[in-house]
Amino acid sequence: MKQERETRNFVKQLGPGFNLGNTLDTHDLHFETNYPSDFETYWGNPVTTKEMLEDIKLAGFNVLRVPVTWYEHMDENDIIDPIWLERVCQVVDYGLEAGMYVIINAHHDDWYIPDDEYLPKARERMEALWRQISERFKEYDQKLLFESMNEPRLIGETEEWREGTPRSREIINALNEIFVRTIRESGGKNADRYLILPTYCAKPYEEALKDFRLPEGNRLIASIHLYSPYSFTLNMQGTSEFDHEEPADTEEIDKIFEDLNRFFISNGVSVIITEFSAVDKKNEQQRAAWARYVGKKAESLGIACVWWDAGPGEEEGKPFPLYNRYTRRWLFPDLLEALTE
User: Fold this and answer.
1) φ and ψ at 184, to 5 degrees?
2) Which of 40, 151, 163, 177 is catalytic?
């Protein structure tokens, strides 16, 4: 109980967070390169600078999630390219020096599809990847957190974006166990680092929550993503309206938090919503109202929230603009206030 309370208190004090999306998580470049900047800028963002992250901290964000895709930077023996690892380290250092907590993960990696066909390789690569990351960061303090996987799911299958299958959820639990064991065995400050573990596809749905199993150990946190209701948050042809006093607009969100409390919080499992966002439909006031509603629900349960931002902001087709990394300008002041108040 003491360890559960400690983790819950840690998560409660994290405050609002910001995702440095479409940056170190880029992949599938259509040319050969070993330069990290080619990857970092491929999806339309500039190279990340220390000043950008200072802006994000100054705006009121206390957590920086740095999505990282690793598989294209690993050789046939699962060794990470040291140049790539050092660039990841540099961005982590920028965030820490700005005064934020920092989360790094494995984001668009193609090896952790939760299917038995992929499981032997997934076991090997999970251990190899996090052994190297753990070694590189083993003396970093507890302001650096590790997250095992991003939205592990049955890619291309009917259940991909739903709740998965019982077997896929079981495999995710097994991979999370390897992740935790590998990091704990690496020693140093990894012995008690806070670790974040997703449900199937990071879904907050009942079956995914019910079958999630926290590995043995301390300082472990469950991860989910929240893009609900879909018609408002992600569907560009959907509604641009959100009214926090209208049950039809809030019932799906309410159900998610009821389930998070029932399956996780009331059982001593702490939670971070490592992604939540809503696309811009020229509806800043409604987006701000949605963000406030989600934020207050989360705060009441001691859940931290990390806004998904893909940048670069004003470019056509970018669905989650908040901060323009080229001009270093916040584009939606009311939404920013809603996220950081």
Assistant:
1) -65, -35
2) 151
Distance CA 105, CA 94 (A): 17
- The reported pTM is 0.97
Residues 168/169/172/174 CA torsion (nearest 10 deg): -100
User: Count of CB atoms within 10 A of residue 254's CB?
Assistant: 12
In this structure, how many other beta carbons lie within 10 angstroms of the beta carbon of residue 12? 14
Handedness of CA 286, 287, 292, 298 (dihedral sign): positive
Our answer to whether residue 86 is catalytic in this structure is no
- Taking a C-beta distance cutoff of 8 angstroms, is the pair 192, 219 a contact? yes
Sign of the four-CA dihedral 215, 216, 217, 218: positive
How many CB atoms within 10 Å of residue 142?
A: 12
Q: Is 151 a catalytic residue?
A: yes
Sign (positive or negative) of CA dihedral 82, 84, 88, 91: positive
CA distance 148 to 126: 8
Catalytic residue among 40, 147, 163, 275: 275
- For residue 66, give the H/E element and its range: strand 63-66
Model pLDDT for residues 79-138, shown as the tens digit of each residue: 999 999 999 999 999 999 999 999 999 999 999 999 999 999 999 999 999 999 999 999
